[in-house]
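Bumping with the actual sequence this time:
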Amino acid sequence: MLFSKGFFYLYKKTMTASEIQISEYNPFYKRYIDLVENIHLLDALAEGLGTTQSFFDSLPNEIWDYRYAEGKWTPKDILQHIIDTERVFAYRSLYFARNLNAELKGFDENVFADNAMANNRTVNELLQEHLAVRTSTICLFKSLNTIQLKQIGMANGSNMSVAAAGFIICGHEIHHCNIITERYL
């Protein structure tokens, strides 16, 4: 990994998952938020970076192009999906933090996956992109204050606070690593 945890040393504490109210996100996302330890958001993002990089780096070469059933994603597709979803939710966070009463459309994860061509990329390229995106996400959230973290916008027709989007990023990543463990290994 290019950065040690020291790079992300956090001088300020942010919200924890238990401080997020159900009114700050669509109940669909509760399953992701519940996967995150009750630690500060910046710590969850930094720890998730190391854990996810190590997890994907440890996968056997023979499973990277494996699909456990027809129409299912490969681990490369899943990693690209994690990256794409983080970009979308980080953008939502930025947009809501900077723009009161903001509203954004949803995105279709399957359309994204169909057009990402993840299986034409190397594992190293995907891991480098994940590192770059997470580093950017951490920098974004480090720049936000508590008032900005509590700002709520509309995403795909539902309320979403900036902090909730951050915890969704973390839990979504855990969710997909769990799926790979259960169905691919």
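The tokens above came from a reply further down the thread. The helical segments are 30-33, 41-57, 75-98, 109-116, 123-142, 146-150, 162-183.
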